[in-house]
Write a structure and sequence with these properties.
Radius of gyration: 19 Å
Oligomer: single chain
């Protein structure tokens, strides 16, 4: 019996709008024998997968884990050996807080061929869809993209460092830590700095709140904004 070469492709699905996936990602999806996809992946993209491929939802959202990361790693290796080409379809870009590197390293340690197809990160695309540039001559010389919640479930220390800078600050997975983030910027006397919170960015379910550091918590409550959202300061 012919056996396919075990292979893992980590593929970025982009920020939500199906049209923001890359042509290369579509081509790779069409060659998959198995696709493992996350909760933040737009399910309309699944129509681009070969009809004979096995689809496995391994959705991960706060408080909702179909599979733990260790189980996903093991599933990748098992399916690669039994089926051949496994595509791990992840929201945004898999190397921007997507744990894509961990999955590649695990698969490679079992001798599985690995490849990566970058995706458009929500940290760039979601503000852009609201006409918010992360850099602009005369107002922002750089931008920081920071995780709001570390492995230890604490706010990243980098947020305090970013609050001291003149950079645009983009915080992913930070809604649960928003009061702490506000205090850090208030401590730097940046009370009037503009803030945008964008929920379900680039999709039909998009919701936006615009305010200042001093007023953003009230806007979040009024507009009932919650995860998945990004914070742009």
């Amino acid at each position: 019996m012919y056996r396919k070469t075990p292979k893992l492709s980590i593929v970025g699905a982009g920020p939500g709008d199906v049209d923001l996936i890359t042509i290369k990602a579509i081509k790779v999806l069409n060659t998959a024998d198995v696709v493992l996809y996350d909760a933040l992946v737009n399910e309309d993209l699944l129509t681009h997968i070969h009809p004979n491929a096995e689809l496995i939802f391994v959705g991960k959202r706060k408080g909702c884990y179909h599979y733990q990361q260790e189980q996903i790693n093991e599933l990748i290796v098992a399916r690669a050996h039994s089926h051949g080409h496994v595509v791990r379809l992840k929201g945004g870009d898999p190397f921007i807080f997507g744990r894509g590197a961990e999955e590649m390293e695990y698969a490679a340690s079992y001798g599985i061929e690995v490849a990566m197809v970058p995706g458009i990160s929500s940290s760039l695309a979601v503000p852009a869809y609201q006409n918010i540039p992360l850099t602009k001559r005369g107002s922002a010389e750089s931008f920081w993209v920071i995780t709001g919640t570390t492995k230890e479930h604490k706010l990243s220390n980098d947020v305090a460092l970013a609050a001291k800078s003149n950079a645009t600050v983009v915080i992913l997975m930070g809604m649960g830590k928003l009061p702490e983030i506000v205090k850090l910027f208030q401590h730097e006397s940046k009370n009037q700095l503009a803030v945008a919170i964008i929920q379900n960015g680039t999709t039909v379910h998009e919701k936006v709140g615009i305010a200042t550091i001093d007023t953003i918590l009230g806007v979040v409550e009024k507009e009932e904004l919650s995860n998945p959202a990004i914070i742009v300061i």
